[in-house]
Amino acid sequence: MAQDVSEYLSQNPRVAAWVEALRCDGETDKHWRHRRDFLLRNAGDLAPAGGAACASTDEAADAESGTRNRQLQQLISFSMAWANHVFLGCRYPQKVMDKILSMAEGIKVTDAPTYTTRDELVAKKG
């Protein structure tokens, strides 16, 4: 899959530049590779298309831009929550967990650490 993503990005430099700008400082290559996959799978119309961008100043375009910005911020947040869950063992409210896990379907992470939750430890003692 990683080779497919790399090939896609090499053929789509605007998308490659767009997604690379979403990488966090200090994010490891391993974390970024999987989070980038998450972003690309779920970006839909948020990722740039081919061709030149056109600027518009009418109110409808401004409103659409605001909506797109909110959607992008939400996607980035979901991608970070998913990566934190997979690589750091973080947990979130069940509604968020259901959402991020469904968004990540098909992403194979073979070298993720495993964690034991407090609830699992308590259950073992009982």
UniProtKB/TrEMBL annotation:
Residues 19-125 form the XRN2-binding (XTBD) domain. Pfam families: XTBD (PF11952). InterPro entries: XTBD (IPR021859). One of its GO terms (cellular component) is nucleoplasm. Belongs to the CARF family. This is CDKN2A-interacting protein isoform X3. It comes from Sapajus apella.
